[in-house]
Amino acid sequence: MASQPRRGGVSLPDRRNPKSGGGGAASIISRISQSEIVSRSRQVACDGAYVAKKLLKSTGKAAWIAGTTFLVLVVPLIIEMDREQQLNDLELQQATLLGTPPVGQK
């Protein structure tokens, strides 16, 4: 009968003797990895990663809004101020060449 294969049913693995020295490191690692502290730490790490992801997403959106607003509103203002300064410098240079006093000085 020993040579006939089993039909159906579930076969369980052989149990190890806990007092024997075999498999000590594996059992310690499995007990540590299944401990409450490790599972709680894993949960805290997952929560931290979730918060960091949300924060980076919202920071990216805020940076996009700020950058776009800067390009639309501030850059044209800077360009116009530069043009005005160039025009004032040109008028001052022409007034100096022609010998007339600059505008605003007496």
Automatic annotation (TrEMBL):
Keyword Transmembrane belongs to the record: yes
Lipid bilayer topology: Single-pass membrane protein
Assigned keywords, A-Z: Membrane, Mitochondrion, Mitochondrion outer membrane, Protein transport, Receptor, Translocation, Transmembrane, Transmembrane helix, Transport
Major site of localization recorded for this protein: mitochondrion
Location of the region described as Disordered in the Swiss-Prot/TrEMBL record: 1-26
Pfam families: Tom22
GO biological process: intracellular protein transport
A single GO cellular-component term on record: mitochondrial outer membrane
UniProt key word Plastid: no
Subcellular location(s) per record: Mitochondrion outer membrane
Bilayer-spanning residue ranges: 62-79
Family according to the record: Belongs to the Tom22 family.
Protein name: Mitochondrial import receptor subunit TOM9-2
Taxonomic lineage of the native organism: Eukaryota, Viridiplantae, Streptophyta, Embryophyta, Tracheophyta
